[in-house]
Fold this protein.
Amino acid sequence: MLIKKAEVITTSPDRNFVTLKLTTDSGITGLGDGTLNGRELAVVAYLNEHIVPLLIDRDPQNIEDTWQFLYRSAYWRRGPVTMAAIAAVDVALWDIKAKQAGLPLYQLLGGASRTGLLAYGHASGKDNEELFDSIREHQADGFRAIRVQSGVPGLRSIYGVPAKPTTDAGDGREHHYEPAQRALRPPEEDWDTRSYLRHLPTVFEAVRNEFGPEVPLLHDGHHRMTPIQAAKLGKALEPYDLFWLEDCTPAENQEALRLVRQHTTTPLAIGEIFNTVWDYQLLIKEQLIDYVRSAITHTGGVTQLKKILEYAGQYQIRSGIHGPTDISPVGFAAGLHLGMAIHNFGIQEYMPHGAKTNATFRQSMTFTDGYLHPGDNPGLGVELDVDEAGKYPYQTAYLPYNRLADGTVHDW
Ligand code: CS2
Ligand code: MG
């Protein structure tokens, strides 16, 4: 079997997506997600200019060899663009291999280790009243675990809390927000860590009082605190028994988490912006995190994320695969298949895609009573309607960035 065609398809139904479609001489096709939010066209160019020519007439069955070839022959390794491009190829090859075997991908990855994947949904509100409504909506939708993001008095806009709902999921209801905004420049937001640190514990106290001690609650610090501020927040949230506190501090310097760990037992999740196992090495071997947050799309595909999670499993660290709307239905499905097969599954993020996206990418995954399942169709269980995709040309969009009161640029 040989790869005969490799197409890089960009589409923007509810937001921008980059999809690699491989077609073999036996007519089997495979899809891979290369969507890098706010930098999509860099991956498109990397694929079109540097990788697609290398795939034609290549045997799609040698997935590990192709992975190593793309990683090592590039000479310039790692990084978000390279690893998203490699991920797109890797996932498309796994899709082909599973279709060739006539099996859902998770069967090739070792079969089912569970009947379904506990998912968490994104509840948010500019104040507690709005937040409580959002939590109730998500519980009504079947979510058993809830991520809580709240407005902070004095801040105009903040990550995770939509100024206005943006995506229509086709169920007549407006769903949560899409961080990347269609604009020619990144929107500027304001931030103040001290007012956030004062406010957030009061939010979790109110949520626990209202919804009780059982419901698993998660929060995303979105890389905004210094290590000691993260330690302070982790400690202040301990009474509210969080499932995890995510991205509490930028982790380029992995040692920073030692200080956080010294001061709090709140479980820590990190990794959605990581690209290789090396970004995790110290965090895993020193037990400085409890959940690996990578998405398959940003970590070089199924082949590498499987290895990272196997390494993490030796330290009883679990998966918390990244699943916002900027992971396309293709990348999302690949994460579900891996989540079904691994032993050390923790939880799966689930931010439903919009109606146009769901019409463009037909999916066999299900969400039932709080649990996700990839379905049992051969391969990933996702088909891209190329004609539908053609209706929505790429649109420039940027993620916001932050400035402090004195004008200093800050992590968003
Ligand atoms: C977030 C993401 O879902 C999350 O945990 O951190 O929504 C993140 O902001 C986006 O993926 C950025 O593209
Ligand atoms: Mg996050």
Remarks:
- Residues 146 and 206 are 14 Å apart (CA to CA).
- The mean pLDDT is 96.
- The chain has two domains: 3-104, 117-377.
- The pocket of D-mannonic acid (ligand 1) is lined by residues 37, 179, 220, 222, 272, 324, 326, 349, 399 (CB under 6 Å).
